[in-house]
Amino acid sequence: MYFCVVTDFDCDLIIVGAGPAGATMALMLARSGLRVAVIDKERFPRDKVCGDALSGKVVSILRRMPDGVLDAFLETVPKTPSYGIRFVSPGAHILDVPFKPVKEVPPGFICPRREFDGFLVSMLRKYPNIRLIEGEKVVGLTRENGLVTAVTEHGKLTGRMIAGADGVHSTVRSLTGFPRPLRKHLCTGIRAYFEGVRDLHPENYIELIFLKELLPFYFWIFPEVNGRCNAGLAMLQSGISSERVNIGEVFTRIISDHPSIAPRFSGARMTGRAEAQALPLGMRPGPFSGDRLLLLGDAASLVDPFTGEGIGNAMASGEVAARVVKSCFEKGDLSANGLGDYEVQLKRRIGRELRTSGMLQRLAKSPLLFDLVSWTGRGWLRFP
């Protein structure tokens, strides 16, 4: 058995999910004195379907983690520095947007999730008050008598509260009765790795190429280490369903036949296979807190509706959650009212950004308007 027997409860906080949201929350609480258990159904390192882009927001949060986490990341993890985003409109207008400079380090990176998530989990193992439980899926949950019990495939774990950081198909969210994301607020991304893609940006800008057949989403090309690229596309699930689209066939067709994409892949070689993943867009996030409960990251539908960035917002939710939880434990108030401050602070942190991105996503549905914005937007659009 994985769990030790404790008279009243096993830990103060149970975090379900050891991805960027859950790992960030745990690391931000590493020096709090709270006993934290982090459960994940996978064993790390593990792969994750993603664009692999780490924005300046991610770098800033790594800097605020305890005990030199950013330095360890810079020294040990394979990655490619990136200095901005290139938007290509349906009419082929190019808008290059530099990332906001971050002190002393590149403002962004492209890093495979296997490497990045594995690194964060390795940091968790340093702290005696953080217990990492891998390869255990949560299948049941109860909240009673001031405690929360997570039931896994092999045992039980009891804590004083729980945080669900377990992704778009969150078990914690479903077991606690929180609503699932609406289909119109979900998209599907498909990605594959390639060697030999041509004409990459000299400063490793990530590229979002908005094609008419994909609007309001895009085809992406992100340069990885050792000449490899992460390439993929995203489409709204409502469109995929209503038009009976095979997203894999769309991906293959664009790489093979699209006049602006195919020449760049003509000599490229796919390594591995294309894989898909649902993404919950932050079009109308919330609610994501309750009695002895918080939802983080994809479980709270925090993916940027325009750029598709999920890692930065997931980590921001983990950072905010850690701050609020620490304060609630100090006050002895883990009620829905006390933990409700998490929603207030998180919306203050990223709410305006999500609203702006939602507006841009709606704008992107019109090729003509998107072309106009991309043509006139030079000089005023920046990303963290």
Name of the CATH class of the domain at 11-48 and 109-180 and 283-362: Alpha Beta
Regarding quaternary structure, what we see is single chain
Q: What's the number of helices? A: 12
CATH H-level name of the domain at 11-48 and 109-180 and 283-362... which superfamily? Answer: FAD/NAD(P)-binding domain
Q: Bin the strand percentage.
A: 25-35%
Keywords:
about 375 residues, alpha/beta, FAD/NAD(P)-binding domain, eight-stranded mixed beta sheet, about 25% strand, disordered C terminus
Question: What can you tell me about this protein's structure?
Answer:
By secondary structure, the protein is an alpha/beta fold. The chain has a domain at 11-48 and 109-180 and 283-362: 3-Layer(bba) Sandwich (FAD/NAD(P)-binding domain), CATH 3.50.50. Helix content is 32%, strand content 26%. The chain has twelve helices and 18 strands. The chain has helices spanning 20-28, 56-64, 69-76, 113-124, 171-175, 237-242, 247-257, 262-265, 311-331, 336-339, 341-363, 367-376, and strands at 11-16, 36-40, 53-54, 80-82, 84-88, 94-98, 108-110, 130-134, 138-144, 147-152, 156-164, 186-195, 206-209, 219-223, 228-236, 269-280, 289-290, 293-295. Strands 1, 2, 8, 9, 10, 11, 17 and 18 form an eight-stranded mixed β-sheet that branches. Strands 6-5-13-14-15-12-16 form a seven-stranded mixed β-sheet. Strands 3-7-4 form a three-stranded antiparallel β-sheet. A hairpin with a 5-residue loop joins strand 5 (84-88) and strand 6. The chain is globular and about 65 Å long. Residues 1-7 and 378-384 have low confidence and may be disordered.
